[in-house]
Amino acid sequence: MKDDPDRKPSLAEATLAGDRRALARVLTHIENDTDLGRRALDTLFPHTGNAHIIGITGPPGGGKSTLVNEFIRTWRKQGRQVAVIAVDPSSPLTGGATLGDRIRMQEWFADDGVFVRSMASRRFGGGLAQNTLAVAHAFDAAGFDPIVIETVGTGQDEVSIAALAMTTLLIQVPGTGDGVQSLKAGSLEIGDVLVVTKGDRPEAAELARDLRNIRMIGLAAGSEVGGWEVPVVRTSAITGDGIDNLTTAIASHRQWLQTSGDGAQRVRAMIAAEISVRVQQGLLGRLSEQNHDHLEALIDRVVSRNLTAARAADELLSGM
Amino acid sequence: MSERNRPIRMLVAKPGLDGHDRGAKVMARAFRDAGMEVIYTGLFQTPEMIATSALQEDVDVIGLSILSGAHMTLFPAIMDALKTVGRDDALVIAGGTIPEEDIPAIKEMGIGEVFGPGTKLQVCVQYVLDHAPTRDDDEG
Ligand SMILES: Nc1nc2c(ncn2[C@@H]2O[C@H](COP(=O)(O)OP(=O)(O)O)[C@@H](O)[C@H]2O)c(=O)[nH]1
Ligand SMILES: [Mg+2]
Questions:
Q1: Residue of A120, A189, A121, A197 lying closest to A156 (CA atoms)
Q2: Residue B137 lies in a domain
Q3: Is A94 an interface residue toward B (CB < 8 Å)?
Q4: Which domain, by its residues, includes B96?
Q5: Cβ–Cβ below 8 Å for B56 and A95
Q6: A233: which DSSP letter?
Q7: Residue B96 resides in a domain
Q8: Which residue in chain B is spatially nearest to A98 when comparing CA positions?
Q9: Is A291 exposed, middle or buried (0-12, 13-18, 19+ CB in 10 A)?
């Protein structure tokens, strides 16, 4: 096949050659985990591992997309090709979704070095779509670096994005009681950089100060020498203040990942999480397809209080 | 034959210079409620912006909402821009204040259907469900 000069290049080959339409189509196949998508990833994956994958998470309306647009400006000046994966929740009732993050990133429409792709979370937890990281791999293979994954996170949900990104930016919004909220949920810990957006608002300085204090307590409690000191950066998309500080902090974190060896560990953790998600989905799929009757029978027994759910699960797993 | 085994992806865009996006938002919500994944890009979309969104988001359908009266210049420019990026395979539909007598010419441009003011949303949704193209590499 390879020798046939008339052979049309596959979607994956065209993607590697810089064809944006092919890339967009590959992303759809990967998102839907089709056979074609899996084959494309087989071809693309050896070309990955170069991109800095950055997660940005925080409450809806917190200024994430606006901030990403500012990042694009900085990174384009550095000559880097930027990809954005913007994930918004699907409606649990209809399965539909409104994906509105592009609105804030429109000025790059004529720039081939910027690619924005919206994804619906499709009932996958943590504000994340199931195949988000696989989509990032395709961007990586196509030469995009960095790749930003924007997700909506409120409280505990945010934890899962940290497993899919090398650097996680946690957004805190002034005037919403966010600092205290995140502290309760324990999600502050997932931020490699804490970002106070809308820094032009009067409450912003106080929130940044509170976050620094909280971080100091955290540091005193259990940090090692050579560890990453989580910076708190206040930004305003209106005045432009803090944007350079933030992109510098992101670059420093990447540098630190490389020099400390923590980066290799993160990559391992990301891959472990990716495999684990697929195993879970695969098992659940098999459970509902091949073991459907068995499952229903077990549910009956649990309903009639003859069996605990734990025993039912054991029985299913041992039979698989 | 190819079959779509995933939600329909749709772009809802508001080309032109008038600042009213209520119609476009209502449209976006109706398609979402019908289970579609709707990329909403808001006001003042140029033909090139629409083409870039259609390309990058790999949408199956593009819904244009237009109230400015500039449809006879905007629509051909949009169709050209889509062709330039290779996305003239998407189904394009239009809604808004479009006079009856313009509709044949608009359909001639390759726009699938035109929905005038007062069209029931359910009619638009059903049209898209019936006519959204399957792509040649969609698989069952
Ligand atoms: N005052 C102020 N408003 C902002 C700033 N950044 C974003 N916004 C506004 O916050 C709203 C939500 O922004 P968006 O980026 O869409 O938030 P996202 O939902 O977190 O992606 C928009 O109306 C923005 O104009 C900022 O730095 N200062
Ligand atoms: Mg957003």
A1: A189
A2: no
A3: yes
A4: 9-130
A5: no
A6: E
A7: yes
A8: B38
A9: middle
CB atoms within 10 A of CB A170: 25
Which tokens sit at A168?
């996680």
A167: amino acid identity, one letter: T
Which domains, and CATH codes, for chain A?
Answer: 11-261 (3.40.50.300), 275-318 (no CATH)
Show residues of chain A in contact with B89, CB under 8 Å: none
What span, in angstroms and rounded, lies between the C-alpha atoms of A25 and A28? 5
* B52-75: burial string, b at 16+ Cβ within 10 Å, e else: bbbbbbbbbbbbbbbbbeebeebb
Structure tokens at A236: 């305003």
* E strand spans, chain A: 53-58, 82-88, 97-99, 114-120, 147-152, 167-172, 193-196, 232-234
Q: Whose CA is nearest to atom 9 of ligand 1?
A: A63
Rounded distance, CA A292 to CA A287, Å? Answer: 6
pTM of the predicted model as reported, rounded to 2 decimal places: 0.93
Residue B114 lies in a domain: yes
pLDDT tens per residue, range A150-203: 998 755 555 577 778 999 999 999 987 655 665 655 667 788 999 999 999 999
Domain count, chain B: 1
Contact (CB, 8 A) for A171 and A62? yes
Handedness of CA A160, A20, B112, B69 (dihedral sign): positive
* Model confidence pLDDT, tens digit, residues B24-53: 899 999 999 999 999 999 889 999 999 999
Q: Tell me chain A's radius of gyration from C-alpha atoms.
A: 22
Q: How far A46 CA sits from the closest chain B CA (Å)? A: 23
Helix (H) or strand (E) holding A219: helix A204-222
Beta bridge partners of B66: B96
Is the ipTM reported for this complex over the cut 0.90?
A: yes
**B90 part of a folded domain:** yes
Distance from the alpha carbon of residue A22 to the mean position of ligand 2, in angstroms: 26
Rounded to an integer, what distance in angstroms lies between the CA atom of residue A266 and that of residue B140?
Answer: 36
State residue A245 phi and psi, 5-degree precision.
Answer: -60, -40
B22 CA to centre of ligand 1 in angstroms: 20
**Do B40 and A99 count as a contact with CB atoms less than 8 A apart?**
yes
